[in-house]
């Protein structure tokens, strides 16, 4: 497959990227094609508005927050490597892979997926989802669908249900516990490759 090889040659350190993310050669090539497709102006990087073309994201309630996760604070662009690394969080967990205690936890493990979602809510990055964080995120997600009063009561209930140590905020451990029964793979499946 000549075209396959020529694509890979254009992606330096591709082996490293595959190892880190667990994506196969075929995945990387498809992601590279998708990246180029989204990069309409062929600048070699994507801006937040390029992500608006991703269908599943526009209708995902936390779509905006997910788009935000591709961009580190103060940066308005994302390159192919960062793009692939972030997308690796959405890869279904691979249970068939033999677990080696020496190797670092894969990006798509349940814990890393939960961490990824957690930081979408922890707006001020202080390690806790506070009432204010939650209010802002939910306001963005629900926008016109609820009144401020309803929003307040949703926030109250969410915090009450998850907050175990009574500090009026949700730590990562509390977050993890509250989502114990949730199939995170299912929740985090987004069709980027369509
Ligand atoms: Ca916070
Ligand atoms: Ca707490």
UniProtKB/TrEMBL annotation:
Its domain of life reads Eukaryota
| The keyword Ubl conjugation belongs to this UniProt entry's keyword annotation | no
CDD domains associated with the record: EFh
EF-hand domain: residues covered: 109-144, 150-185
The record's subcellular locations are: Cell membrane; Cytoplasm; Nucleus
Keyword Cytoplasm annotated: yes
Against InterPro entries, the record matches this protein to: Calcineurin_B_homologous, EF-hand-dom_pair, EF_Hand_1_Ca_BS, EF_hand_dom
Q: Which GO terms describe its molecular function?
A: calcium ion binding
Listed A to Z, the keywords are: Calcium, Cell membrane, Cytoplasm, Lipoprotein, Membrane, Metal-binding, Myristate, Nucleus, Phosphoprotein, Protein transport, Repeat, Transport
Some GO term, biological process aspect, for this entry: which one? protein transport
GO CC, sorted alphabetically, is: cytoplasm; nucleus; plasma membrane
Name the family the entry cites: Belongs to the calcineurin regulatory subunit family. CHP subfamily.
Q: What is this protein called?
A: EF-hand domain-containing protein
């Amino acid at each position: 497959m000549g075209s396959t090889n020529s694509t890979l040659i254009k992606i330096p350190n591709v082996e490293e990227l595959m190892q880190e993310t667990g994506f196969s050669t075929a995945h990387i090539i498809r992601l590279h094609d998708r990246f180029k497709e989204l990069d309409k102006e062929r600048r070699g990087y994507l801006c937040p508005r390029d992500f608006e073309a991703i269908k599943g994201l526009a209708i995902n309630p936390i779509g905006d927050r997910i788009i935000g996760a591709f961009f580190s604070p103060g940066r308005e662009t994302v390159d192919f490597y960062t793009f692939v690394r972030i997308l690796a969080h959405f890869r279904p967990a691979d249970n068939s892979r033999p677990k080696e205690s020496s190797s670092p936890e894969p990006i798509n493990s349940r814990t890393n997926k939960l961490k990824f979602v957690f930081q979408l809510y922890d707006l001020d990055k202080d390690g806790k989802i506070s009432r204010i964080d939650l209010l802002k995120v939910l306001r963005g997600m629900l926008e016109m669908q609820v009144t401020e009063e309803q929003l307040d009561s949703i926030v109250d209930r969410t915090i009450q249900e998850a907050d175990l140590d009574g500090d009026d905020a949700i730590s990562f451990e509390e977050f993890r516990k509250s989502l114990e029964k949730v199939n995170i793979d299912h929740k985090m499946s987004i069709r980027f490759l369509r």
